[in-house]
């Protein structure tokens, strides 16, 4: 019993090693939105392996009524605000599974609503 507990503690210590972001490593901000939550993962692939930092937010009742496009855009906005400490002054890529959002970010027309701007 004691050895199993000790083995569990050692496993948790190995999994939860803390590391600072590597300023030289590329940064990827992966975002996703559901009907009730938005989430983001900040990732860096370094010589130590893959480092990840996670953020999640429950949407309020008004935000739950947003379109899928607006929820995905909100996920990007909130993720950039949350991880500004790691993103500011660095090049980074945003990954989303929402195709209309990726096309909209590269279009030249100004068909944005006030909230989207």
SSE layout:
Elements: H1 2-15, E1 27-33, E2 37-46, E3 49-58, H2 61-64, H3 68-82, H4 84-87, E4 92-96, H5 99-104
Parallel strand pairs: 1-4
Antiparallel strand pairs: 1-2, 2-3
**Lateral strand order in the biggest sheet:** 3-2-1-4
Using the 3D structure, state the CATH architecture: Roll
**In percent, how helical is the residue content?**
25-40%
**How many β-strand runs?**
4
What is the general shape?
Answer: globular
- Helix-strand sequence: HEEEHHHEH
Q: Give start-end ranges of low-pLDDT stretches.
A: none
How confident is the prediction overall: mean pLDDT? 80
Can you tell me the CATH class? Alpha Beta
Count every helix, treating DSSP H or I runs of 4 or more residues as helices: 5
Named CATH topology: Ubiquitin-like (UB roll)
Tell me the Rg in angstroms.
Answer: 18 Å
Decide which structural class fits the backbone: alpha+beta
**Count of the domains:** 1
The rounded distance between the terminal residues' Cα atoms is: 58 Å
Main beta sheet, described?
A: 4 strands, mixed
How large a portion of the residues is in β-strands, by DSSP E?
A: 25-35%
Walkthrough of the structure:
With 117 residues, the protein is an alpha+beta fold. The chain has helices at 2-15, 61-64, 68-82, 84-87, 99-104; strands at residues 27-33, 37-46, 49-58, 92-96. The mean pLDDT is 80. Helix content is 37%, strand content 27%. It has one domain: Ubiquitin-like (UB roll) (Roll), CATH 3.10.20. A four-stranded mixed beta sheet has the order 3-2-1-4. The protein contains five helices and four strands; from the N terminus they run H-E-E-E-H-H-H-E-H. The protein is globular and about 60 Å long.
